[in-house]
Amino acid sequence: MSPKLIVLLAIFSLQCLLALASDPDPVQDFCIPNPKYGAIRPARFTILPCKNSSEATTDDFVFSSMKSAGNFSETGLATIPVNPANFPGLNTLGMSFVRADLKAGAINPPHFHPRATEITHVVQGSVYSGFVDSSNRVFARVLEQGDVMIFPRGLAHFQMNVGDKPSTVFGSFNSQNPGSQKIPTAIFGSGIDDELLEKAFGLSPKQIGMLKKGLIPKGLN
Ligand SMILES: *[C@@H]1O[C@H](CO)[C@@H](O)[C@H](O)[C@H]1NC(C)=O
Ligand SMILES: *[C@@H]1O[C@H](CO)[C@@H](O)[C@H](O)[C@H]1NC(C)=O
């Protein structure tokens, strides 16, 4: 094989790998994890043995626990993440979703999902929503009831209820395990050395201490 051909083949293989950077395609209709093998935990989503498909029932494909808001944090945000851990029928299907309710003025702090693009649908209320791209451009506006917005995979995004009534938002992810990293916690609540944070943000040790203390108890983590 000529060296040129080998290089072309290598580039082609790399492109195939990049194109496949998502949940694997299912190799059967569905795979409801077999409860015999223990509780479903996020880290084990894709390696759980399926139960015999002849034992699947309609109820395995119906989720009824997001009809009302979840438990509100001190900051007024309630989320119900729905993934194979609480809805086993989703296993291997490459998607998951979330219900978020925000009290008037409440925020969903900047965060990102390393493994999924999110599409959000404002079911009720007025929600300032947006994301920041890798050139630090902000794409944000107030969404009204019925509006849908996309948060591309891996990009930081945020929401704030700017109405005077509670708002409800549904989000869907193109991964059964999107992951979620909250920026305030990743920076100030993860144990990064204070000296580095002081230099990165140009803040004093006292200011860094206040940020660390302030964020976590308020439920922004
Ligand atoms: C699944 O269940 C069907 C019907 O009970 C049975 O015939 C089949 O052998 C089972 N398959 C496995 C792999 O256990
Ligand atoms: C809300 O809190 C109760 C009591 O701790 C708990 O049983 C329930 O599962 C929680 N609901 C959600 C959606 O997390």
UniProtKB/TrEMBL annotation:
<feature type="binding site">
    <location>
        <position position="157"/>
    </location>
    <ligand>
        <name>Mn(2+)</name>
    </ligand>
</feature>
<feature type="binding site">
    <location>
        <position position="113"/>
    </location>
    <ligand>
        <name>oxalate</name>
    </ligand>
</feature>
<feature type="domain" description="Cupin type-1">
    <location>
        <begin position="64"/>
        <end position="209"/>
    </location>
</feature>
<dbReference type="Pfam" id="PF00190">
    <property type="entry name" value="Cupin_1"/>
</dbReference>
<dbReference type="GO" id="GO:2000280">
    <property type="term" value="P:regulation of root development"/>
</dbReference>
<feature type="binding site">
    <location>
        <position position="108"/>
    </location>
    <ligand>
        <name>oxalate</name>
    </ligand>
</feature>
<keyword id="KW-0732">Signal</keyword>
<feature type="binding site">
    <location>
        <position position="113"/>
    </location>
    <ligand>
        <name>Mn(2+)</name>
    </ligand>
</feature>
<keyword id="KW-0479">Metal-binding</keyword>
<keyword id="KW-0052">Apoplast</keyword>
<keyword id="KW-0964">Secreted</keyword>
<keyword id="KW-0464">Manganese</keyword>
<dbReference type="InterPro" id="IPR006045">
    <property type="entry name" value="Cupin_1"/>
</dbReference>
<dbReference type="GO" id="GO:0010497">
    <property type="term" value="P:plasmodesmata-mediated intercellular transport"/>
</dbReference>
<feature type="binding site">
    <location>
        <position position="118"/>
    </location>
    <ligand>
        <name>oxalate</name>
    </ligand>
</feature>
<dbReference type="InterPro" id="IPR011051">
    <property type="entry name" value="RmlC_Cupin_sf"/>
</dbReference>
<feature type="binding site">
    <location>
        <position position="118"/>
    </location>
    <ligand>
        <name>Mn(2+)</name>
    </ligand>
</feature>
<keyword id="KW-0325">Glycoprotein</keyword>
<comment type="similarity">
    <text>Belongs to the germin family.</text>
</comment>
<dbReference type="GO" id="GO:0048046">
    <property type="term" value="C:apoplast"/>
</dbReference>
<feature type="disulfide bond">
    <location>
        <begin position="31"/>
        <end position="50"/>
    </location>
</feature>
<dbReference type="InterPro" id="IPR014710">
    <property type="entry name" value="RmlC-like_jellyroll"/>
</dbReference>
<dbReference type="GO" id="GO:0009506">
    <property type="term" value="C:plasmodesma"/>
</dbReference>
<dbReference type="InterPro" id="IPR001929">
    <property type="entry name" value="Germin"/>
</dbReference>
<feature type="signal peptide">
    <location>
        <begin position="1"/>
        <end position="21"/>
    </location>
</feature>
<dbReference type="GO" id="GO:0030145">
    <property type="term" value="F:manganese ion binding"/>
</dbReference>
<feature type="binding site">
    <location>
        <position position="111"/>
    </location>
    <ligand>
        <name>Mn(2+)</name>
    </ligand>
</feature>
<protein>
    <recommendedName>
        <fullName>Germin-like protein</fullName>
    </recommendedName>
</protein>
<keyword id="KW-1015">Disulfide bond</keyword>
